[in-house]
Design a protein that fits this description.
The protein has 26 helices and ten strands. With 564 residues, it is of the alpha/beta class. Helix 6 packs parallel to helix 9. The longest helix has 54 residues, at 150-203. The chain is elongated and about 105 Å long. Residues 1-78, 204-215 and 345-363 have low confidence and may be disordered. The structure holds 2-acetamido-2-deoxy-beta-D-glucopyranose (5 copies).
């Protein structure tokens, strides 16, 4: 009965248009076997004893069941046994042809990565049709039954069986991938529903809950506060050394850039990277945070020994060149701040305007998100640097990245497109003439999170100017909406070098069906998505990948009750 279970599940999971065909066929198949099959097979059991694998056809069981004394009388009733046998084979061929067609249509509906499956199923179906209409077999159907050529019939049966076997194999393999995609689809639907609710909440003035959902949870906040208290109580312990260690600027070492306002997340990134580096004393981590979290970061990274790794903690405000006369985003944020000021005094109007409300989300306001576009100026002495988001975990030694031939490109990143998804068209406004003229809407997008930057190539290509040009044009947000990925895709268009996907596995903050093999094999895993590992809503199966790098022995971490 493998046949039945193998193709019934996906159809019953989701009642879509094709389901009727599949299920109806199943029952038809069985109903007709109780009548036809009993007759034929039993009548013909003497022929079937020589057939290669009767269980391959669903009638195998009834064959066994009725094998006894009925045979002779049935035989006596039937004058030509070959005709019904032919009909039965043909029927099975037809049923499997319809099954393949149904799956092709099912795959087409799921769209995602199934275009190959669509083709395979369509071909399977066509192969059944071709087989039935082969001239040598057509003669079987044209004969009156008495003069049927039995060797041809046997050959026909053999070929049908072979195709049925292939069909079932493909169905069994496809089923797994279909189930996963259904899960993803369901998740997407859920996320979409949540977003809808948030939009509604916003419109109703409940915007603060949105900010709460996006910002730092209580326990991380507690940690930052406690660290800050420590910093204030013992200022001498944490004063900046006047002279920076030469390693911070030594281009022969391995340099990392981490921009974060989350103390715990930043420490997990550094802990995991140090843990897996073969020689920590060759690694330099440049942590940049905001004024508010500077003290906490300084204390956090002073409390522990990193086996010789170097850690620089700075505030974005320390970099004077990042001012609104130079940085378009700051200029735009300043005017956004004016808007914010304006709206804060007129709350009633503010809650009605969803677009402007977005500017009040700290995430979008923060310059910390945008300083990734100033790496060559932040680190003028360096030739190359690895940019890491604060929601990643390092699982391997990463020095191999420095050995990759960048082919003169600037940004080494993993690509994220599949099928029609994650193409440039989804990230920017192709109705805008400037975008349309310059970019290919089908170009493959890549991901931020772990990006290897060749700073010399960046300087040579003058990409900061390129970025400024586009960012200034986007003052009114007509080229793209928010975030750093669209301007990144624009700035590094044609200067991105695709990295092997195992360097950076994404989706641990939203996609429950990433395979554990893929995760275990990854150099870096990325909790992009809403279900961050430091939040209650984190996915249980992925959270340990992150928590194992939390400093539980740190007294402040303990004091802040991480229910991790
Ligand atoms: C269809 O038939 C051709 C020729 O017999 C064969 O090469 C091909 O693999 C078959 N396709 C599928 C999907 O089984
Ligand atoms: C802003 O930055 C530019 C260089 O990027 C610098 O010349 C200028 O002095 C800065 N302005 C202020 C007020 O710091
Ligand atoms: C809200 O906006 C409308 C039109 O833009 C204006 O007439 C009204 O005075 C504003 N309300 C407040 C409280 O500012
Ligand atoms: C943005 O809109 C304002 C007011 O509508 C306009 O003055 C300005 O030129 C626009 N900026 C750009 C870059 O299109
Ligand atoms: C896209 O660009 C066109 C042309 O400038 C503009 O009319 C339209 O409003 C833009 N779309 C969005 C969503 O900003």
């Amino acid at each position: 009965m493998a046949l039945r279970s193998s193709y019934r599940t996906p159809f019953s999971d989701r009642s879509i248009a094709v389901s009727g065909t599949g299920i109806r066929l199943t029952f038809k198949l069985f109903a007709s076997f109780l009548s036809v099959a009993v007759f034929l097979l039993l009548a013909l059991s003497f022929l079937f004893t020589s057939s290669s694998d009767p269980s391959d056809l669903s009638v195998g069981n009834s064959h066994d069941l009725y094998r006894g004394g009925l045979r002779r009388s049935v035989l006596a009733l039937k004058s030509d046994p070959l005709k019904p046998r032919l009909d039965q084979i043909k029927k099975q061929a037809d049923d499997h042809r319809a099954l393949a067609l149904a799956y092709a249509s099912y795959a087409r509906k799921l769209k995602l990565e199934n275009s190959k499956l669509v083709r395979v199923f369509a071909e399977l179906s066509r192969n059944f049709t071709d087989l039935i209409s082969k001239p040598s077999y057509r003669t079987l159907f044209d004969s009156d039954g008495n003069s049927m050529n039995e060797p041809v019939l046997r050959q026909f049966e053999k070929e049908v069986k072979e195709r049925i076997k292939v069909t079932r194999q493909v169905v069994a393999e496809a089923k797994e991938s279909f189930d996963n995609q259904l899960k993803i689809q369901k998740l997407k639907d859920t996320i979409f529903a949540v977003n809808e609710q948030l939009t509604k909440a916003k419109k109703q003035g409940a915007f603060s809950s949105l900010i709460a959902a996006k910002s730092i949870p209580k326990s991380v906040h507690c940690l930052a506060m406690k660290l800050m208290e420590e910093r204030i109580a013992h200022p001498d312990k944490y004063t900046d050394d006047r002279n920076t260690p030469p390693e911070f600027e030594d281009p022969n070492l391995y340099h990392y850039a981490i921009f974060s306002d989350n103390v715990l997340a930043a420490s997990v990134v550094v802990n995991s990277a140090v843990k897996h580096s073969k020689d920590p004393s060759k690694h330099v981590f440049h942590v940049v945070t905001d004024k508010m979290n500077l003290g906490a970061m300084q204390v956090m990274f002073k409390m522990k020994d990193y086996n010789g790794a170097f850690i620089e903690v700075k505030s974005v405000e320390d970099y004077k060149f990042l001012n609104s006369s130079y940085v378009p985003v700051l200029k735009q944020l300043e005017s956004a701040k004016l808007q914010q000021f304006y709206f804060e005094n007129k709350l009633e109007n503010a809650t009605k305007d969803a677009t402007n409300m977005k500017f009040r989300n700290p995430k979008y306001l923060s310059i910390l998100n945008h300083i990734r576009f100033y790496l060559p100026e932040l680190y003028p002495k360096l030739h190359r640097i690895l940019f890491l988001d604060d929601d990643i975990v390092v699982q391997k030694d990463l020095t191999g990245l420095w050995k990759i031939d960048m082919d003169g490109k600037v940004n080494g990143a993993v690509e994220t497109c599949f099928g029609s998804f994650h193409r440039y068209a989804q990230y920017m406004n192709f109705s805008h003439p400037l975008i349309k003229e310059k970019f290919n809407p089908k170009a493959c997008a890549w991901a931020y999170g772990m990006n290897f930057f060749d700073l010399d190539a960046w300087r040579r290509e003058k990409l900061t100017e390129e970025y400024h040009y586009w960012q200034s044009l986007n003052e009114n947000r007509t080229l793209w909406k928010l975030g750093t990925l669209p301007p990144g895709l624009i700035t590094f268009y044609s200067t991105t070098k695709p990295l092997d996907k195992s360097w950076h596995v994404l989706g641990l903050g939203y996609n429950p069906s990433i395979s554990m093999d893929e995760i275990n094999n990854a150099a870096v895993v990325h909790f992009n998505g809403n279900m961050k590992p430091w939040l209650d809503i984190a996915m249980n199966q992925f959270r340990p990948l992150w928590t194992k790098y939390v400093d539980y022995e740190n007294e402040y971490v303990q004091a802040c009750n991480f229910g991790l």
